[in-house]
Amino acid sequence: MKDKVRKGAAGRTQAKTNDVVSATHGKDSPAVKQEDYSSFPVKIQGAGVETFEFQICGFWRVQDALTTLLSRDEVAPRTNLSLAFAGVPLDPLAGLQNVKGLKPGAILRLVEEPFTARSARQHLAQVVELLRASGPQDALREGRSPSLLETLTHAQTSETSLPNGKSLKRSASNPKPDAANNDCSPPEYLLPGSSDRPLMALLPHSSQPQVPSSLRDLSLSSWDPPPGHRKLQGDFLYITVVTTEGQRCDVTSCPKGFFVNRSTPEAFDPRPSQSSPVCHCFTDLLCHISPAFKHAFTKNRHHTSQVDMMPTPYQTLCWLGPPCATRTHKNTFSRLGVDDQPANQAPDWNEELQAARDRPQTSLEERLQRERALLQVNSAFVRTVSQGAETVVEGFADPVNGNPEDPAFLFGGLFMSQGAASAVFGGERGRRAAQRLELKGVQLYTDLQGLQGLHTLPTAIVDYRGVRLSAQGLAPGLEGTEQEEGTAPVSRGLLYGVNAGLQESPHRRRILELLALSAKALSLQKHVVLAPNGHRVPLFTSVDAQGLLGADGRFYILDVFRTFPPDANYCPEGSGVTICGEETQEESSNGAEEKTRSVNEGWPLNYQKDFGLPKSFPHSLCRLRPELMQIFIQYKHTQFTQLVKEELDNNGGFEECATACDSRATDAVRAACKEVGSLSEIIFEMRFCPNAFSPGVSFPSSESESLQMHEKLLREAAAFIITHQIPAFVEFCLQSNETPTDGASLKGALHEKGINLRYLGHVVKTINQSKHKERLRHLMRLVMSEILMRSTRRVFNSFLQGVDMPCLATAVSHFLCCLLVPHFTATAVGEDTKKKSRRRGRGPGASESTPWSTLTATELWNQVCQDAVETYSLSDSLGSGLNQLVERFRLQKISLLREFCLKTGVQLRLRDYSFDSHSKAPIGPDDIINIFPVVKHIQMPTTDASKAFRAAQAYFEKGLLESAHEQLKDAAYLYGRVCDDLHPEACYCHSLLAKLAFLQGKTAEARSVQLRAVVISERVLGFDHPFTIHQYTLLAVYVCAGGETNLAQKCLLRARLLLLTIHGEDHPYIARLDSCLGLLLKGDQAGKYLKNALRLNTSFFGPTNLHTALTQHLVSQWLCSKGDYRGAMNHEKEALTAFTSLFDEDHPQTRCSKEFLCTITKQAVQVERSLRQAGANATEQTVECLTPTSETVLEQMVLITGIRKIAVSDKFQEYKQRHKELKAAVAKELASKAANELFEVMNGQEKELPQDAQETGSGEKVLNRGSLVAEEITESQRAEETSVNTVGPANGHMVEEKSEVDGGEAEPSQRVVLDAEVKTEDCADGDSTATNGVEATDEMPCDQPDETKTDEVTGSPKSKGTWADVVSNMTAAGESGSNGVENISVNGTDQV
């Protein structure tokens, strides 16, 4: 990174981040260099705080230093302070470098400033926020995802992430090995084959005690507001405090601070109490009043600094609530009124956001402060949107317009509306699609980097109780006035759009420049359309977009919901645009045939017949995803390159065409550009027209040819989804065990491929047509579940529109019962609800006359099926009922319930639900705890942190671990500065950092960082998110490396429980978890997990897959530990067969498998001989057992979890050998030529050197050039080679004695002894000389390392030998494939 700062540059949050990072990565981390101004320590005194040292930067302003100080634990919650140096107050806007005499060790004093009425309320608000510091159990009550890691470690959460980070370092560097007698056997519901899915186990009771309450009550006094004569004497507020000791006090807020007055509930006496001091900080006064408050406040004040207690920028919904919501309700001191925002003080969200965006970005420090400000503004905006949705939908806000079809509301500085349901876009579904696409369009323009001057309004959409609202900050108004009705639109601020007119101005030219740059970055083509008045209007966006000049002088772009190009698969021919002009009538007579031909251009042969596309959709706003646009451009560029190469090869080859002075090369490029649909004839340039296939849009006749080309290109892009992307996605799921596990991960995986969710039906068809349909059953299950839940959500939204607020919980429970229990009858729940309502005094309860109460399971299922068929084009619908669908695809009702709650915002009571009862409703009204708004918002950029993280990923893929480590340290520090690590990308960064530390042999550091990654994932993504499950799996490996076997088992069991809940047992990732559990557990339980893993891997990947082969070896290893060498031989034979088919006989993995088979064969022979010698009458014999060492177990877990991967082939060694042979041949040839020339010279027969020698100069140059080329070609392979690690002895086994009763075994004559002896003789001919001891096994080298492997990266603790010596990260530097979408510059511009 070019500009960097020192790590002591922000307040409490920054100090916490720095300490954690330095504790993790050493004193010099992060590797962020100093800017022009130095950083130095000073001492802080005054304002009642103890003297402490504080690091300041010379380029700070005084205000920056003060803001940082106010967020420090030593100062908070004090506010309204100023800084003074040497008795002189400092100007807040002055730079610290301009303060004379300020040097390291200087003393800065905090000076208490008088309060105003507003600053006093702000101070109280900060105190209340500190007092509300919630414990882990409060997260469920508030609907936030909790962190549950400490329930596994049985330690205080503060020990894993204290503000200084030292406990992380201590617990990571000094992990205590588990006691041998500590039993950690899995419960029955986690054993393979169990069908129990207890929800109570998902959120176990925290071992951390609840945060004790500091006060009983804190509210405005009954004597507030102060009377007039007391206002004139400076009284701001009267506050009533009830301490935990039961003491009741009235407190006065005044300019000097706070004091206790003499008022009582019966009498008003504002005079100060005799024993009360005047405290500038409210908490100081409370500490003076109540010793219990002082003790609790001191204990709890550090909770807000922990990553597992700090509030996340955005709420992560938790679908499960506390078991008893009544008991968990707490006093939040809301009666103090500091949260109430006066109507006349509603924030201007647009101005706040634009002011943050306009902050300078010249240095790294300025960019970090800008991004942090953007995140804070957007976070506050989203919270207000959530509150506004509740206020509007619950009827507490009146509309500001008179349109009942599209009511608009103002709340907290927000403009909220549903939007009109236009029939042009498809009614209600079109309205929702327009709101969603508007948010995506705003996100697209927000992400444009380096494009200053084009602004968008703060935008979010929120779904609450079946209603979708759009929320935006208030627009700043248009530049100019509307005093003259005849004033042109340009002068009133409308500069761009079909209604902007044709007037020119400098502002109009500027906004056109900005839009042209944005169109280039977004791959959008400039085009011309006809305005309603017939004027030709050039556009860089969709026809709906408008460019405005606001009253604040900024350029804004609005209505960008059709920015993305249309999806031609759902644009039926004949419903497109209109071509107008003078030439239209002349061409109409003979253009019918040409039009028919152009309509079919771009579609593959028999496309309509094979896939049923194009077709209509319930709404007309189907657009392509930006990911698909980039992937398709890359695909076209690859096609273009191939066409040019083929054309040049047909005309004499590339070298000849390039050196010739004719037009063959140019003609080849022109032909390729025309073939792929490039906009330019001389370079590859691919752009899309967003207004193609748009009904109601008129184009001039001059755009006819260009429009046909764009429509053809869009048809190709749409067909590309069906013919390439969906099969590629299915193939990925077929080969990987990291396939999606729930709806969120499925959505992310499809979007990464550029596939919209409306193509789920086509994914189903692709799976059904695959010859590996059975191996894709987990994907089919997931897709069908997603189709069902998305259709159910749309029906549920309509269902809620007719439900009154008092009946909401009953109606939601009734809907869920009808959905999940097909035999459910509404009568039972109605009578039950009436009885409960009468007991509680709520009236008669549900009535049969209400529309929602008459809904039946059959009627609901028919509505869901109809929606699924219309949306996803399912050929066989969903079946006759949910039970049939569940049985057919082996769905889990508890998983369906989770998906429903996450999609709708419903929160259920934490208890175990049973859906098999015919007499009782499985879900009652008391089980519906709350309904939360589901907000979709703009993601603010973390530019520098993301760049550092992407650079680290690139280095890691190349095997440059040291460079990756430095970049990851930078990224972790920068994420901490911007978002306090509470960001999804920060979670990914910490996970990769932990993995990198483990690969470098730093297991303590890996454990420490991974603990933090787990907590961040639980808080930001969700406690049961698939990525959280993966983080628990990785944590198990790292803690196992430190000897904490029991903790590793708990992490794996936790991951298994979560995955069983969200998907079920029939998933490839379960095989990974079961393999690891089989390695850690002992006895028969280990065998159950290993056999289940083998069954799953065999069914999903086949018998010859690498995953299956590794599991076969683990089963063989487990059987050896039990003394069953016959069974072990059979499984190892299967593993050897798979390794031989995957690699070859000389591959290290194959050789190691052979040697291990020889070892167990010899051991089996010895056991057989000992049994024979003991005689048939012996009742008990001692059998020697091979037991894997702890190093072996760790190394096998590393392979199973994918931290390292087995190299399929040693490409670097193969290329090196070929290069040596080629170099030797060239040298020999050149030496022969030199000898011949020398002989001719000696004979007086000189002649000119050969042409090739003249071109190259000399033979030495040829060799040198060949060497350089070889170095360039193999650079990435050599980099990859550095990540090749020698895994420890997976065949290194310890021999144990085991007693078995011979009576239960087969007779010696029935054992296969002859075959074992023959194999023993075969093995005796090899190099392996295994014996009964550990040394014999360790001396069996699977593969001796080559001298070229001396630079291998040190991995986990190693032993002498291994069954998999050569492992490698299989992702090479150039393995992105044709569908890679990063760093595309084929359009003549770098991506922004």
TrEMBL record:
It comes from the Eukaryota. Keywords: Cytoplasm. The keyword Cytoplasm applies. Residues 1336-1345 have a biased composition (Acidic residues). Residues 327-571 form the Clu domain. One of its GO terms (biological process) is intracellular distribution of mitochondria. Residues 212-223 have a biased composition (Low complexity). Pfam families: CLU (PF13236), eIF3_p135 (PF12807), TPR_10 (PF13374). PANTHER family: CLUSTERED MITOCHONDRIA PROTEIN HOMOLOG, EUKARYOTIC TRANSLATION INITIATION FACTOR 3 SUBUNIT EIF-3. Residues 155-174, 1368-1392 have a biased composition (Polar residues). GO terms for cellular component: cytoplasm. This is Clustered mitochondria protein homolog. InterPro entries: CLU-central (IPR033646), CLU_dom (IPR025697), CLU_prot (IPR027523), GSKIP_dom_sf (IPR023231), TPR-like_helical_dom_sf (IPR011990). GO terms for molecular function: mRNA binding. The lineage of its organism: Eukaryota, Metazoa, Chordata, Craniata, Vertebrata. Residues 1-33, 155-226, 832-851, 1320-1392 are annotated as: Disordered.
